[in-house]
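Cross-check.
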Amino acid sequence: FALRAQLDIAGLDTISRQLEQEQVTLDIARYVHSACYQLLLARKLLAVSDDEVETLTAHKRNAQLFYAQGLIPPNDQLKADVALANAVQDREKVRANLIKAMTRINRLMGWPLDTRIMIRDPGALSTGPAGFNPDALSRQALQERPIMKLLDVGMEKLGFSVKAAQSAWYPHVSIVGSYAHSGENAVADENDFTNSDESYAAVQLEWKLWRSGKTRAEVARGRRQVKSLEARIEGYRARVLEEVRNALLDCRVAFSNIGTAEKALDQARENWRITDVQYRQQAATSTDVLDARAYLSQADTNYYQSVYGYLDAVAGLDRAVG
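Predicted model, tokenized:
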């Protein structure tokens, strides 16, 4: 049974390489999903920066007008200038992050690094993680994760290795045959000294009984390796279940943050609207306007980070379940 066991092991080696390829493909898909969400987030943040620069530019014009009329002190005008300059600098950083995100996708996809990419935004989220079934996802992870399949294949390979080692207990039987055709002429059918055709067949048996100690040791080693792999499988099983549980928790936290960030964004927009009107009527200071704009920019950033953070968490869950 040794040759058959070796053939089975070779076939399982091919399956192992395929599973390793699936694992790499799964990881790359996770990286691409994350990179795409980072690109979408960078575009939203660039829009927020553009809006901030636009509103602060308008505020600077109002401050210059009020200063020319003697309604505000010079330091209020200087605050507007500094805030606008900082917003312009921050926008350049955000634009650079956008280019970096696009470059990362091109690298992962094997495209030229300067390729321009347009990604369709998934839009509003219709469902949250409440519909996720933890038990079903855990079962799916244990069945579909390439690492679990790879461990199962490894266990099967060890079983064949033990079988191959046990084959030394059996005799090695060979069938040997020979045929010869000889003669004096070209077709070798004339031979005065012996028969033109000679053939024989024999059965050869080889049984190395004195190797029983070595065979017993190899079989015992294979069985110990099986027990060791069983313990590893239990460890990986617990790790996979932990990854699924953590991914589900990340999804729930990220989704709940969307609602909180959305409420804060509505409040920040209303605060900005009221403060801007008050400043035009000289009922608020330049500091109040700049603070309200900073709150709005931060609320915008938090909202988009929570939205794409949730999508990225769902991609992490997809990775966890295989």
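Residues 178 and 200 are 5 Å apart (CA to CA). The radius of gyration is 37 Å. Passed to J.P. for a second look.
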